[in-house]
Amino acid sequence: MTKSTIPAKPRLVQLSRKERLFEDFFVNMVSTTERLERLFGLTVVQEQIFGRPVSLYDPDLTGAKERLRANRSWLLVSELYDYAVDGVSRVGTTGSQSDGESSLVIDAGEVIALLTGEESWPADEWHQIVKMADGRVALADGVALDVARVALLANVDVRTVRNAISSGALPADDGRIGCSD
Hints:
mainly alpha; 8 helices
């Protein structure tokens, strides 16, 4: 076989972090809606969310993914991601119907919790994002954070935060950082 007849390697598309999380969300939503229909004898859950019954083995899931992107559940967790990771609050502007950052954290956290079951488990990253957003809300409300939450928000190891406290670069009161009363 000559070099010219060797097939080229397929190009791997690098997905953004948020896009990877959407794919995880989609898989878990399909699994969860399948379970809801099977266990409760329902027939319209997938049609309401995806526009039709969906299986992960379907050859074309484009329409189902587009419908999910417009669904309130994705709008909530997408807005949560933007707030937690980028510090951008879009509360009330995306159609998620959240009425404040605290409400957003609670509602989006509930969506992630509802996707969790024996047959589906959202990526651990979703739980970290909920904790990050909760940390941002706490800071905005003037509540001090523990070392782990600060490390999560700063995207550094806990040891880095502890070193900063030890060196005096990061003031802490009884192991808590930020506003304290």
